[in-house]
């Protein structure tokens, strides 16, 4: 953790009690919960919908992806999507992330990508995981991630300003609170 983050933690901890989902994050504003200790490592953050560039088998796509929830537990990354751009609550319903390389347990499959374990702070780790996702070349379809065929959706949205259709998202019948109970060590 950076010295500035430690100072902010000390100041915040002296004034108020932390919840399991932080209401006023002291680091990256998308961080919802974290435990940096390796044996209980858990980081959860979100990103509002954003235009992303990514590759699927050498084809480049530039399109708006829905709001996403990221969970790192030990050295595994789990991805979900959400229908709202608002800061999520414990009761927020989760949907399958509309991406390739996801298993039916919502775990991201890295294939042969090398993952570094020498990360010094939570903000850096969040950037690391996101960078690895969006700079990957997606290779295989895992679980069914949209109601209709995903590459057709990608092609129809590619290089447009059209938002990802929320009607295509597949409900995983899990809230953020249930995801914390399921994935937190």
Topology:
Blueprint: H1 3-15, E1 31-35, E2 42-47, E3 50-56, E4 59-65, E5 67-73, E6 76-82, E7 93-96, H2 122-134, E8 137-138, H3 150-157, E9 171-175, H4 176-183
Parallel strand pairs: 3-8
Antiparallel strand pairs: 1-2, 2-5, 3-4, 5-6, 6-7, 7-9
Verbal overview:
- The structure is a single chain.
- With 185 residues, this protein is of the alpha+beta class.
- The chain has one domain.
- The chain is built from four helices and nine strands; from the N terminus they run H-E-E-E-E-E-E-E-H-E-H-E-H.
- The protein has a six-stranded antiparallel sheet with strand order 1-2-5-6-7-9. Strands 4-3-8 form a three-stranded mixed sheet.
Q: Gist?
A:
The chain is an alpha+beta fold.
Please tell me the total number of domains.
Answer: 1
**Could you tell me the radius of gyration in angstroms?**
17 Å
Mean pLDDT: 80
Q: Major sheet, described briefly?
A: 6 strands, antiparallel
Strand content: 25-35%
Specify the helix fraction band.
Answer: 10-25%
Gap between N and C termini = 21 Å
Query: Structural class, from helix and strand content?
Result: alpha+beta
Order of helices and strands: HEEEEEEEHEHEH
Q: State the total count of DSSP E strands.
A: 9
Would you identify the regions where 5 or more consecutive residues have pLDDT less than 50? 11-25
Spatially, the strands of the biggest sheet line up as 1-2-5-6-7-9
